[in-house]
# Entry
Amino acid sequence: MTFSADDQRFMAQALQLAERGLCTTTPNPRVGCVIVKDGQVTGEGWHEKAGGPHAEVIALNDAAARGLTAVGATAYVTLEPCSHTGRTPPCAQALIRAGVARVVAAMQDPNPLVAGQGLARLNAAGIATACGLLGDEAHELNIGFVARMTRGKPWARLKIAASLDGKTALQNGVSQWITSPAARQDVHQWRARSCAVLTGIGTVLADNPQLNVRGIRTPRQPCKVVVDSQLQTPPDAAVLNHTNAQPQVLIVCATAHPGRRQRLESAGAEVFPLPDRHGQVDLPALFAELGRRGMNEILIEAGARLNGALISAACVDELLLYQAPVLLGDSARGMWHDGGNALTDLAATPHLNIIEHRIISAVPRDTASDNLFTRARFL
# Structure
């Protein structure tokens, strides 16, 4: 299907609107909509949060507030209009009632409750439809939502801070701070868009992290997930410091020691036993559970042992690697632990596809503080 330059321009505008919901829409997708008539934008909107009006309805209301009509207009939507009643009525029906003549969607909704039915309903009402314009960009914006809808688990990003020679800590465990403040601030952007930040008990005991978003304005904090087989998390750990307005803390264990469990639950955590047959946390089952809870994107900030276990269990989709211009040497700790199963064949090593590579600099720039950022996806 051929799209015009104007089609491209208005869909790009709709995608920019959708990005405004980057940190707020979970568990819903990020969606933007632009209503255009006679080459002019008459209304626009974006979905802000679950339970609130969808982008199409906001755009139609915006047109009405301007005293403009959507009759005969084209609606550019970054995701197929929904056809079912959830927390809000179906958007396809709202567009039909508004009298639009054409709907262009960037991509089909992967939700089985929609999955083409929204476009079909529009077609049945005599509205021309098209799908696929800037579809790759729309898919990327909602990669976590798509992952959860199509495979039942969220999109998982593994963040690692390392030296140029791939080391994450000195031999004695000291790792704060290898990377620069600018690099660490960049990490908070990834935290802000994530539904949860996941770590292991080793990191909790060694670094006592807060795992919250700091230095960035955000209307919500991500859930905190701790993989802790034996419930060793101290009740006064920083990860548990929160108020009622802040997020859930989920501690996933293999053995639910009653006394330890009670102390952690009294500190505000949810303790969730999920053992595998080896007496460890069942990692694939954990990610399926996070998907069941409506989580779209997970950011992993853990140590080498849990990193290795997650990679071996095929639980990681993407790597976020921050490298500082320092060398820590052969005795320092690496990025991931192979569990004692040393690789002997290069063909069997994990392979990734680099999709982004940039330098993160301080402002004003200090070249001694420049960090390399690489984003890569597991093949």
